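re: ur question from earlier - yeah i can do the single chain one, its not a big deal. heres the input i used so u can compare w yours
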Amino acid sequence: MGILATPKFSSLKFSNSKTVAMHFCNKKKLHLDPKLKLYNSPIKVVKETKFLGLIFDSKLTFLPHIKMLKTKCLKALDILKVVSSTDWGADKSILLNLYRSLVRSKLDYGSIVYGSARKSYIKILDTIHHQGLRLALGAFRTSPVESLYVEANEPSLYNRRIKLGLQYLTKLKAFPSNPAYDCVFNPLYEEIFEKHVNKIPPFGIRMKPHITSANIDLEEIASVDIPQTPPWLLPKPKFIFDLLKYKKSDTNHLLIQQNFAEIRAKYQNHKTIYTDGSKDEDKVAAAAVFGQRAATLHLPSTSSIFTAEARGIILALQFIGTSNENKFLICSDSLSCLLAIESEKF
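and the output i got, formated as tokens:
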């Protein structure tokens, strides 16, 4: 089955020489390639092609990409060989940084995609990883692989791919509108892959046991709603840091209260909302008070005090979203949160 999009604007044209088609199929029976045309010219059907730096083949084995990746990494290792001279070369920390930036970065890119390759194929890259660590550490060829991991503080490529996969998965969980969301968290034909262990399951099914072993509660990940209005079109709020001139240790609290009352008097037509965040050992919570209404939220024990204070401000914004008023004064004692919002560095 082939789908071809027609350009909406006459000035936009696709290049015939750069356009190819690929027929993904694992059927053993005869399954003819589709016949597609572009500007009445046939589109060439290929067995493999590069897309965003990844080589896809019609069987999705990713073997061509793995071979290409090995070749690129071997060239990068040549630089490491020159710099790691025993007479005048760099020290271990610099060599490890070079390895991570020149070689490991290439191995990381797209690992979530090509990680579905068979173990016998993907194991080809392990020799690159081990060779790079030996060069950086100055270790012998006979040095055990496990000792290289410990000395360099580097995991195996298998564990590295799991780590990157979990990072991508937890980030994706916050964006339900992402097209890949349902494929990852609601995979199809899960029972079939359980019965046929030789078949390679999709990413969502492969990561399930690792989510359990890492004790990750996906329900604790809050969803991110993308606003319809771009943030650069929203009016910037006004920040008042007048109370920063007083030090709590040297200033009478009555003076601070008096100055706070003066600030509130300047904004009498604004509704005041108070926010706070607290952390006590393994208990983290955020709260916001708006008149007679109050909202509290318990956060994961691993959350920082910055996260708690920020969540308190989010609760205040949720109050504002449900209110009929249009002028508000949010009071927070977290300078770091306010400065982060003011500088727009999140």
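Strands lie at 20-22, 37-38, 41-42, 44-46, 48-51, 54-57, 271-280, 283-290, 293-299, 328-331. not sure if urs matches, ping me
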